[in-house]
Amino acid sequence: MVRRNEMTRTERVRAAVRGEPVDRVPVCFWHHFHPDGSGRRLSEASLRFFDDDFDLDILKVMPDLPYPFPHRSIRQAEDWGLIEAIDRDRSRYMSQRTEAVSVLRDELGYDTPIVMTVFSPLAEALYFAADHETLLRHASERPAALHGALHTIADNLAAHVKDVIAAGADGVFFALQGCTTTMMLETTYREIGRPYDLIALEGAANGWLNILHVHGESDLMIKPMLDYPVQVLNWSDRLAGPSLRDVRAITSKCLMGGWNEFGALSNGPAEAIRAEAENAVAQTGGHKFILSGGCSVPDETDERWLHTAREVADDLELSIPGGGDRV
User: Which of 35, 147, 269, 283 is close enough to 244 for a disulfide, judged by CB 3.0 to 4.6 Å?
Assistant: First the structure.
């Protein structure tokens, strides 16, 4: 198959984000690499997957070097006080992730966009709490303790994001958790999620490719995040909804999705992979659109389906609607 190479990856993604014509729809998918704490190993695995194996339009640095705090360790409200400011010069978490970006930028030059995956402050706090119910109980009974920890996490993340963009990243893949009404009310998320999301995102102010990932399997809160300072929205449109078409009707941001990451993209058959991609283009016209899964594909995914997905992206016919954005 002859691939169209009229634009570089960066040119293609920038055009999609801006709503300008593209030579083909940009495409990306991802899974975890588990590099055993090494930024260099993470960069090597990322380069192999995104560049060598699949020629993807965005290199997404995975969150496989975690925030340095024990998971499921916070049981009492006073435990939130154990979360402290991180010394960026001495933190292996921050230095290894920044090193991964630097290595990748040196290898790729500037023709490929790089984004660093960052979990939101509330997402990190949900990992640190013994369980979700514990965090929500503390939010109700001891809000000052939780808010203090969330502010510290947000400040740490803002500083880290600023560093990775200075090291060569084009933006962040900012992953929200808890933003589903099956877990909490929208008013609760506005209290313990949104303020700290915005603090953390201040570090990405110089990024042109900031992607907001709204994580969850059902009942997602999308509308409260539409004014976040990001250029792209990603969520499991096939698995959790709402559809690409429904979200296109309420925002002019670039949308990213179209494949069910647990469906055809990771299990086949080829006809279903193509059908979802064609339907995604039909919903968006291929305008301000990046074709991807709604989240990570399973790590054990048979790569023949990913190769098929990549080939499908080359064949898609774009039908850009006249008149620009709908809203």
Answer: 283
User: Structure tokens of 240?
Assistant: 């959790």
Low-confidence ranges of the chain (pLDDT < 50): 1-2, 320-327
The pLDDT of residue 187 = 97
pLDDT digits (tens, 9 = 90+) for 15-60: 999 999 999 999 999 999 988 778 999 999 999 999 999 999 999 9
Cα distances (angstroms) measured from residue 33 to each of 42, 50, 170, 259: 7, 12, 21, 21
User: Quick check: bond before 63 cis, omega within 30?
Assistant: no
Phi, psi dihedrals of residue 232, rounded to the nearest 5°: -135, 140
pLDDT given for residue 15 in this prediction: 98
What kind of fold does domain 9-315 have according to CATH?
TIM Barrel (3.20.20)
Chain centre to alpha carbon of residue 242: 17
Residue 207's nearest CA partner among 94, 115, 88 is 115
SS3 per-residue string spanning the chain: CCCCCCCCHHHHHHHHHHCCCCCCCCEECCCCCCCCCCHHHHHHHHHHHHHHHCCCCCEEECCCCCCCCCCCCECCHHHHHHCCCCCCCCCHHHHHHHHHHHHHHHHHCCCCCEEEEEECHHHHHHHHECCHHHHHHHHHHCHHHHHHHHHHHHHHHHHHHHHHHHCCCCEEEEEECCCECCCCCHHHHHHHCHHHHHHHHHHHCCCCCCEEEECCCCCECCHHHCCCCCCEEEECCCCCCCCHHHHHCCCCCEEEEEECCCCHHHHCCHHHHHHHHHHHHHHHCCCCEEEEECCCCCCCCCHHHHHHHHHHHHHCCCCCCCCCCCC
Phi, psi of 119 (to 5 degrees): -80, 145
Distance between CA atoms of 32 and 54, rounded to whole angstroms?
15
